[in-house]
Amino acid sequence: MPPSLADRSLGFRQTYLDHERLTAQLHTWAEAFPAVCRVRSIARTPEGRDVWLAVIGRDPDRVRPAVWIDGNMHAAELAGSSVALAIAEDALRLHVEPGTLDVPETVAERLGEILFYVVPRISPDGAETVLRVGRSVRSVPRDTRVERGRPRWLPGDVDGDGVALAMRVRDPGGELVEAPEFPGLLVERTLEDHGPFYKLYPEGMIEHYDGKRIPAPFFLGDNPIDLNRNFPWSWAPGHEQVGAGPFPASEPEARGVVEFTTAHPEIFAWLNIHTFGGVLIRPLGHAPDAKMDQEDLAIFRQVEAWMTEHTGYPTVSGHEEFLYEPDKPLRGDMTDYAYNQRGALAYVIELWDLFKRLGMERPPKFAQYYERVSRADILKLARWDQEENAGRTFPPWRPFEHPQLGEVEIGGIDPRVGIWNPPLHELGRMCHTQAQAFLRVAALAPRIRIGDVRRDALAGGVTRVEVEVVNDGYLGSYGVPSAKKLDFNEPIYATATTERCELVDAGAAHQTLGHLDGWGHGLHTGQNLPAYPGTRGNTHVAFASYLVRGTGALELRIGSCRAGFVTTRITI
Ligand SMILES: [Zn+2]
């Protein structure tokens, strides 16, 4: 027996892979299953790593509906790579170990026809820094700013142990204090505390230090670009949107994504994976639900139902529950680009429902979870870390003589596994449940096929040929309804060429058939109520008609750049 997919796994369901292993995983698949897996690079990073794209599905050059999955655009969010790889592996399983994937037969059958574009790690340079050095990097570990004058923190390993974690300095004016119940754990100071008190900084050095004044650490560190603010739709410059970068798609990682997806209008669904929070964030990001296409919203309610069923994660609107500042939509983020500019059924998954594990009550707006972590919650987190996470998150502090600040302590906090990402023993289940939910979304694809073909002999050696074109898919040939407005989203058309015979009207060789609806319409649209029985008419069907003189054959190619193309040969 040849090795199974499980035998070929390099362990991404159990651990976080570095770039070398992630690269090896993708190439292992491509070499073992060349008929259904190809790997290519969509960008090269400044540190010389490839941003890999895996194309999974039979006959990858045939244009047809496709889904996009990406992870780890934020450097620390390694779990996204594992989940993206798990979805890729499940997609492969459909072809190389048919009948073994845990999805309904009807779903498996649909999925067998679509293409999966999977970019498991958008920021390989960032992920590598987090894995090796441990320090916080938002997206990419580089600093190409021109402004160099202000004193600032340069995070890095100063005690020579190879990792860059946190640094605390005793200071009567410190905002933090050790929790009496948990030695070493820093919590917010209250009026009742006696001290000692602490200031908290990244492990690192201060550039332009005057020996007296200590700058506040910047939350984006010395790597100020956030790839998730660098996309072209609604992009705004740095003084309006922190992390934007100098211009839209200025970064090679973002540019590679934009170039590939612009050349692939057949991408109808887009999963952008982050950690953490345990939530699905859907459009709109920039306006309330009342301004959203209501048919799109109904389809997102179906996605929400699958998320609830398979993962337990809630679904929220980016605008309604995920603005960090009221009335200030994020600019230049990826799913805004994917939904508004590429017309994809696009959303973010924030993996890892740590807040729920800590028993925190859900705040009115989901994003408030991040700001409402109390002193008691931090204590719960530390106890959870000891019991379930091998104490990885809160390692001990070690005294160190800092070249600039003197007596400090280094260590203390390592959020990589436990906060930024789930503990390793949770990863396998997370991969499974996320794939279960997403595979159903992928199965919503439109499916254009050729139905009945009628030939009627008319007088004078002329045959009338009528070809039925059908969309059997859940979504219309346009994808989500709001995508109809996009200029690239052309209607279905038919191109005919003749062999030996000829068309009576040569102009009929090209016919525009229009968009075809699907059978799906989302959830909670009132379609179930028998008070007024009725559905759409057969708006999922169109007809191409030809008058052909003589005998021979008619070759037809029917479809669109989004729905893909089907071909047939009709003998006359
Ligand atoms: Zn993120």
Question: Which properties best describe this structure?
Answer:
572 residues; eight-stranded mixed β-sheet; alpha+beta; binds zinc ion; 11 helices; 3 domains; 26% strand; Immunoglobulin-like; Aminopeptidase; six-stranded antiparallel β-sheet
Describe this structure in words.
- By secondary structure, the chain is of the alpha+beta class.
- The chain folds into three domains: 5-130 and 225-352 and 421-442, Aminopeptidase (3-Layer(aba) Sandwich), CATH 3.40.630.10; 146-222 and 381-411, no CATH class; 448-571, Immunoglobulin-like (Sandwich), CATH 2.60.40.
- It has eleven helices and 24 strands.
- It has helices spanning 19-32, 79-96, 105-111, 124-133, 252-262, 294-311, 318-321, 334-341, 354-357, 375-388, 424-442; strands at residues 37-44, 50-56, 66-71, 115-119, 152-155, 166-170, 176-178, 186-188, 197-202, 204-207, 267-275, 279-282, 315-317, 345-351, 397-402, 406-411, 448-457, 462-471, 492-499, 502-503, 510-514, 541-549, 553-560, 564-571.
- α6 (294-311) runs antiparallel to α11 (424-442).
- The protein is elongated.
- Residues 74, 77, 274 line the site of zinc ion (ZN).
- Residues 74, 77, 274 line the site of zinc ion.
